[in-house]
Amino acid sequence: MARIGFHASHEQFAPSRLLALCRQAQDAGFSVIKCSDHFHPWSERQGQSGFSWAWLGAAMQACDLPFGSIAAPGYRNHPAVLAQAAATLAEMFPDRFWLALGSGEAINEAMTGLPWPEKAERNARLRECAQIIRALLSGDEVTHRGRVTVVCARLYTRPTRPLPLYAAAVSPETAAEVAGWADGLLTVGGNAENVGKVLDAFRENGGAGKPVHIQHALSWAPDRATAMTEAMHQWRHAVLGGEAMWDLRRPADFDSACAVASETALAERFPVSDDLGRHAADIAALLALDATVHLHCVGRNQEAFVDAFGAKVLPQLG
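The chain above was modelled as a monomer; its predicted structure follows.
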């Protein structure tokens, strides 16, 4: 059976609505849930940023599906506290939770006042934090003084079976760098050929045989004009390139940076279409890469999206 997930976007929707959406997604035939972990939304128009760790406990009790999340250790989330949170969920819900670790974005991490370093340093900090988290999940007492400090930390509540620690990577270079220490990969969707290059880099550098999860953004509505309107309203920041996505600090900064973004430019970033067949073909191409694909419809029409894809897209791919 195809592994197709629903992405719960905390920066767009209130936690209470996301709970209902997850139950709806489960009933509609989605087989896994993934959520974001944001302190700020990407845009003032999105207007939400619920605390994902409080939400996850409620959501996993409300639904029977596996869940995954992403976090950036070493800034807003100290690795020891992050390890404790993940271990608690994994103990309550055995074999149903995985955690991806990423190098983070300033909009979610820089509010602590720590310096926001360049990418190479963020990757080094990520690797160091991943080692700390893995040691704590293994039951070790950890004292570490480096980019982060941990003194005499030990987790007394841990899951019976190991918790998978994935790495988040967008580029082939980062995917190759994290492949050695990660239990799996989380990356972004889009054109299957481009995504395949990221997966190849991961698999060729130590990630062969490890699980891969893809978060695939799309915009669907019953007519294309509405699909584009929703994409422009909620996910316009996707047009940004370079380091802007990682370095801008406030939703207002993102709104200013992409104020003149065109519909054409946005449509080049992810599929915007009313054609369910086109979306099904895109998803099938990603599934062919031997991955779990989490669908993120970027518009506000979440209930309609879940119903339509559950009825007409998932059956094509199952």
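Residues 119-137 form the longest helix (19 residues).
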